[in-house]
């Protein structure tokens, strides 16, 4: 996003990533208003959020105990506030999940009070007696 200062407003451009067309949306920020130019309604909503409160879907892994692999792939159920992603990663670093887990299962509701949930993106079965999980980070 680039910015060019004007007297009482700032002009910037947001590259929309909502669909493969990748439109550029002009955003003029005035003291009490936001004027959007270009793109479709979905893209304009994305641009508005990107300028006022940027969010990202977070994908990562967390520790899983008793599973066939030691890390469980997870993602947030919706875009998460960008300025709180570091806090989220600290939370996830301390999280331990117990196998078995099914793909799509909600592991943590309302992450850090944001209303966004943590969802498993892979099914991990529980190891039986005598079975060993694969090593890894
Ligand atoms: S503005 Fe609309 S059409 Fe353009 S990339 Fe975004 S979602 Fe796609």
TrEMBL record:
SUPFAM superfamilies, sorted: CPE0013-like (SSF160148)
Domain of life: Bacteria
One Pfam short name: DUF1667
InterPro entries (alphabetical): CPE0013-like_sf (IPR036593), DUF1667 (IPR012460)
Cross-referenced PANTHER family: DUF1667 DOMAIN-CONTAINING PROTEIN (PTHR39450:SF1), MOLYBDOPTERIN OXIDOREDUCTASE, 4FE-4S CLUSTER-BINDING SUBUNIT (PTHR39450)
Protein name as annotated: DUF1667 domain-containing protein
Organism expressing this protein natively: Candidatus Caldatribacterium californiense
Phylogenetic placement of the source organism: Bacteria, Pseudomonadati, Atribacterota, Atribacteria, Atribacterales
């Amino acid at each position: 996003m680039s910015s060019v200062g004007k007297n009482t407003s700032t002009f910037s451009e947001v590259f929309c990533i909502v669909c493969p067309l990748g439109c550029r949306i002009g955003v003029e920020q005035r003291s009490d208003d936001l004027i959007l130019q270009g793109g479709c309604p979905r893209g304009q909503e994305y641009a508005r959020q990107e300028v006022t409160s940027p969010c990202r879907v977070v994908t990562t892994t967390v520790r899983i105990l008793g599973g066939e692999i030691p890390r469980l792939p997870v993602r947030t159920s919706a875009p998460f506030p960008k300025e709180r992603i570091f806090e989220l990663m600290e939370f996830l670093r301390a999280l331990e999940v117990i196998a078995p887990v099914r793909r799509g299962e909600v592991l943590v509701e309302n992450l850090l009070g944001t209303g966004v949930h943590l969802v498993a993106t892979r099914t991990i079965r529980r190891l039986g007696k005598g079975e060993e999980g694969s090593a890894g980070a």
